[in-house]
Amino acid sequence: MKHVKITDESILVCVYYGLNGERLIRRGHKLATLLDCPLYILTVDTKPLDAFDAEKSGYIEKWTQLAEELEVEKFIIRDNEKRPIQKVISEVAKENNITQIIVGQSAQSRWEEITKGSFLNVLLKEVPFVDFHIVSVNRPIEDEAYGTYEKGVRAYVIRDIENYKIVFTCPKSESLEGIFFKEIGTDFDNGIFKFSFANKMHEITIKEGFVSNPHLIHAILSPAQ
């Protein structure tokens, strides 16, 4: 369901390929929720969509799923684009009445130019009504709702009598594979476990090595006969 706009605010998140795209999108969603306004996502590429390699296509698929999950207003893909990025962002901002733009501070490839003063100066002249949020992406995954986490590691969730626990070596028993992000500053396996199921990303809390809320895991590893 699309957002019914009741304020004058609209947020645009600019993402490029890499693991920080989801962070930027979720940051934009959090801000859009606080302001009760629509959220747009934009990615730009010089190649046509059908020429994307497997890695790029994978990111597009993940971001599309995340956009559906968060019910964003629109996920905009500008492929086969030869114009300067600031021109494309400016055009999209004007077309969608954007008032706030979120970009990554150290994104790779063509997005590097967004952190330069010249880029911001040009863009501010073209869309002077826009506020910019420059988000650092050179730090551990962080979310105010969960705290700060170490770099993610591959992990598995397995059944343990009446509960489910996390292990870090591939088990012989039935398991669920994903990425575990451990809380910084704890000696226990506390953190979050992210995994993909039914073409959607899911996230569960781990406390002292065990799944806090096992209902979803139980439904996956112990489906009804």
TrEMBL record:
It comes from the Bacteria. InterPro entries: Histidine_kinase_KdpD, Rossmann-like_a/b/a_fold, UspA. The keyword Transferase applies. Residues 11-128 form the UspA domain. One of its GO terms (molecular function) is phosphorelay sensor kinase activity. SUPFAM superfamilies: Adenine nucleotide alpha hydrolases-like (SSF52402). One of its GO terms (cellular component) is plasma membrane. Keywords: Kinase, Transferase. This is Histidine kinase. The lineage of its organism: Bacteria, Bacillati, Bacillota, Bacilli, Bacillales.
